[in-house]
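hiii so um. not sure if this is the right channel but i have a protein structure encoded as tokens and i wanna go backwards to a sequence. like what aa goes where. can anyone help
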């Protein structure tokens, strides 16, 4: 999640950019959740994060799945009662997509067993956590979308996605010698949005496409903002622990 978070955020970003969703008036809402509490809900939705451990038992996965579902329910409540109608629809889609992926992982004993098998390709929890820098870099790039020009938004979104996939493969392979386990993490992180990416990101299907087809200065800036491989440096560039608040600001920016 982070891949439970990031696959949905990519999808929502692309949907918003290509113009779906219309702001409409709605009934009065009673918000009883702060932004900080909503971010805490988002943190619960993350299956792979800086505190991840190597699961050994089915019960460990079930416990984590319970936390994920609590986070999803909390965030849906926040979206429904605390956001304007357009933002609420977009954020509810994020939560629903996260729920679908969580159900796919959590509701089948075979799927939970598969997750345990693949996660334990990494010798230690610290080795598995090293992949998290890829998601942190992606969050930094997503947060930058609210401040870039209209013409750069799709290229940056698409090329950030390609950089995420490249990073997952590179970092994942450093400590895990099973390509299928590295591919499992990649597919969990990016697979759900594959068709949408093909539709919107036709010009930016690979890193090489980004190098040759994206505006030179914009491509350089996109790389430079996440050039460091020091997890603490990248973490310090994040405004928020999850992409949710950044997504809300992006939606507001695109709407104006």
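sure thing!! here u go:
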């Amino acid at each position: 999640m982070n891949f439970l978070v990031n696959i949905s955020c990519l999808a929502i970003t692309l949907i918003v950019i290509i113009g779906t969703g219309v702001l409409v008036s709605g009934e009065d809402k009673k918000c009883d959740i702060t932004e900080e509490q909503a971010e805490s809900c988002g943190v619960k939705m993350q299956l792979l994060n800086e505190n991840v451990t190597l699961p050994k038992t089915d019960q460990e996965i079930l416990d984590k799945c319970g936390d994920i579902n609590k986070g999803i329910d909390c965030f849906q409540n926040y979206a429904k009662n605390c956001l304007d109608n357009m933002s609420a629809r977009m954020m509810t889609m994020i939560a629903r997509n996260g729920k679908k992926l969580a159900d796919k992982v959590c509701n089948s004993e075979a799927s939970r067993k598969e997750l345990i098998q693949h996660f334990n390709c990494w010798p230690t929890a610290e080795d598995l956590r090293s992949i998290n820098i890829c998601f942190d870099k992606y969050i930094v790039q997503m947060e930058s979308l609210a401040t870039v020009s209209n013409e750069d938004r799709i290229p940056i979104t698409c090329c950030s996605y390609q950089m995420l996939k490249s990073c997952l493969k590179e970092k994942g392979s450093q400590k895990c010698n099973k390509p299928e386990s590295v591919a499992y993490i990649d597919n969990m992180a990016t697979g759900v949005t594959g068709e949408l990416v093909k539709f919107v990101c036709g010009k930016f299907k690979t890193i090489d496409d980004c190098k040759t087809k994206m505006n030179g200065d914009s491509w350089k800036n996109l790389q430079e903002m996440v050039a460091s491989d020091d997890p603490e440096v990248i973490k310090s560039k994040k405004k928020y622990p999850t992409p949710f608040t950044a997504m809300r600001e992006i939606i507001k920016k695109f709407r104006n």
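oh and The chain has one domain: 2-246.
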